[in-house]
């Protein structure tokens, strides 16, 4: 009630608190929209989120999340706040997932006994929103709990793993995943409760692997080399193997050659097909039944709680990731630096797009050859773009750019065409490095950073 005369607003209601009991072998699926929060605490029993165990009595805060708390033996949760969706699901294929983990563990154990033996190199494929990333998290979480150090590779540019969307990443997991952040925090995020991870990042700058297939192939081949070298850095790494997450857009016939490319480059020995009978049958024919270097193909069910994400939700998630890169999270804020840079100091390339001139308009016998990158001049068109700073030299050939990792990202806050200057946000102080700056078409521009 407001106080008469003082016009004081009524204090907001305290967020609703309630207890949820989950029986063994079930999961509580929940969704929290962007802008609202949910606090969750395990008060009794054991529970995990995508393979990472929740400690008793520790509060976790979620925002802009769709996830599930699974329990093998039953548990009680205390939650504060109202999730937009919250229900208990009985359709949980966790026993299939744990059996896959045990099979991989057996292979890792055999590799470890050989001292220097190669552990499993697993690739997950399936349609969009089939739960591939969640399965990768679960398998990585279980592997870490078993004392392994698997390398997790994200070849889906739609979602960044420990980096911005539009990137391809790999990271060696030797500490637990962060249940609040999804994957955890990288070194750019500042100190956190879970040790930061150091991902290897390549910039693709497009949403679909087919948009610049030439670049996607080059980057994934380069990533495979880096992963192979990481795996051979110690017997533990080698025996732990790698787990590769792929884009749901590869799950169509036109993209099977790209799947073959990844299988060959990463020497994949197990393909896990999630949630598609047809893809499973195609993969079996293409890889398991081939005469040379057959690859084991395993089929898993899609989890009942796995949800399709609307474009608006994904857009907000991307926006949050970009904001988080420069400004941190509510619990760990960061202060980016603003630099004023002259047009002459900026050396820019754009990720090559397919020409939209119709093939019929090209001279006879000529086909479109899509460039890896095209050199561009600074202009107002770059306003609100995120630019990737490459670990390459300005004089390098574009072929070399496609083999170069990302040093970091900067954000173009404003452009003054008249004065030929730009204001840019950077996560670190100092001058803008004299390095190639790459602008992509994805993620989209975010104006209200
Ligand atoms: N059991 C579950 N309960 C609730 N939400 C879930 C569950 N499994 C997955 N999700 C959520 O469903 C969404 C889609 O899952 P996920 O990202 O794993 O699918 P994906 O196949 O990797 O998607 P994409 O092809 O788009 O990359 C995610 O927001 C994820 O957190």
Instruction: Tell me the span between the first and last alpha carbons.
Output: 37 Å
Mean pLDDT: 90
Across the major sheet, the strand order is 13-12-11-14-10-15-16
What is the architecture of the largest domain at the second tier of CATH?
Answer: 3-Layer(aba) Sandwich
- Share of residues in strands: 25-35%
Globally, the shape reads: globular
Radius of gyration: 23 Å
**What small-molecule ligands were found?**
adenosine-5'-triphosphate
Please give the domain count: 3
Structural class by helix and strand composition: alpha+beta
The CATH H-level superfamily of the largest domain is: P-loop containing nucleotide triphosphate hydrolases
**Main sheet overview:** 7 strands, mixed
CATH fold-type name of the largest domain:
Rossmann fold
Number of strands: 25
Roughly how much helix do the residues carry, as a percent range?
10-25%
Number of helices: 8
Main location: nucleus
GO molecular function: ATP binding; polynucleotide 5'-hydroxyl-kinase activity
Domain Clp1 C-terminal: 334-442
Function: Required for endonucleolytic cleavage during polyadenylation-dependent pre-mRNA 3'-end formation. Polynucleotide 5'-kinase involved in rRNA processing.
Q: Top keywords for this entry?
A:
single chain, about 450 residues, alpha+beta, Jelly Rolls, Rossmann fold, Elongation Factor Tu (Ef-tu), domain 3, seven-stranded mixed sheet, about 25% helix, binds adenosine-5'-triphosphate, P-loop_NTPase, nucleotide-binding
